Amino acid sequence: MTLNVNGITIYWETHGEGEPLLWLHGAMGCGADWRYLFGEAPAGHQLIAPDLRGHGASTNPSGAFTFRQCALDVLALLRHLGLPRIKAIGLSGGGIVLLHMATIEPSSLERMVVVSAPPYFPPEARALQRQFSAAMLGAEEMERMRGRHEHGEAQMQQLFAMVHGFAESYDDVNFTSPYLSTIAAETLIVFGDRDPLYPVSIAFEMHRAIPKSYLWVVPNGGHGPIFREAAPRFVDTALAFLQGHWS
After folding, report:
1. Domain map of the chain by residue range?
2. 19 φ/ψ angles, rounded to the nearest 5 degrees
3. Tens-digit pLDDT profile for residues 66-110
4. Residue 246, pLDDT score
5. Burial of 237 (0-12, 13-18, 19+ CB in 10 A)
6. How far from chain centre, in Å, is Cα 236?
7. CATH architecture of the domain covering 2-242
8. Paired residues of 177 in beta bridges
9. Per-residue b/e over 54-91, b at no fewer than 16 CB within 10 Å?
10. Counting C-beta atoms within 10 Å of the first and last residue's C-beta, which end of the chain has fewer, N or C?
11. Which residues of the chain have pLDDT under 50?
C-alpha cells in the first residue's frame, strides 16, 4: 500500500491481525526486515511495516533526509490509518525516528522499544559514516541491498549519500536530556555492550533522561543485537514489555 505525503510516496505493509504494532527498520534497511526478527507476524498483533523515505519502495524525490522528517512521515501515515496512539519497535535509525515521534507528539506512542538508537552521533560513529562505502559492505550484502531497494542505482547512491550526510549533521540527532525528559511513552532501551558505533554509556544517559524507561544491555551484543540466535529472547521480552507486563 502507498500514501502520498510530505512530497514522497511512502510504502507500507500490514501483516497479521490484532492490536497494531509499528515496526521501523534501520537506515539502509526496509520494512520487510521484520521477517528476520519475527519470522511471521506475532500472534495477536497487526504488524505495520513502512519503508522510510528513500528506502525500499518509498520514494524521496528531493534526496533530502532527516530522521525528524521520517517521523513526520510516519505520524502522517498513522493518522491516515486512524491510529492516534500505538506501540512500536524501532531498530537503529528506526529507533531514532521513534525518539522524534515521542518528542514531537508524545501522545502518539503508548510504549516503544528502541534498539541501538543513539541520542546523538558520537565521534566513532561519525568516522564510520564518513568512510561508508559499498566496499565496506561487500558484494554479498550489496546484492541483498539491491533486492531491498526498488528504485535502482540512483536510490542506492542516494542512500550512501544519506549516511555520509549523517557525519556532518549536528541538529537532527541531538536529543539532550531535557528534550528526552518530555517523552511520555514507556520505553525499553536495548543496547549491545560491544556496539562499534555507539558506546553503551550513551544508553545509560538515555535511561536516566527518559522518565518511564527501562534499560536492557545485551552482553557481548553488537549493533542491533536482536537477530539470529538472539531473536527469540528479544521477541519474548519486547512483546511482554509492550503488553504492559512490566508496569
Report:
1. 2-242
2. -65, 130
3. 999 999 999 999 999 999 999 999 999 999 999 999 999 999 999
4. 87
5. middle
6. 19
7. 3-Layer(aba) Sandwich (3.40)
8. none
9. bbbbbbbeeeebbbbbbbbbbbebbeebeeeebbbbbb
10. C
11. none
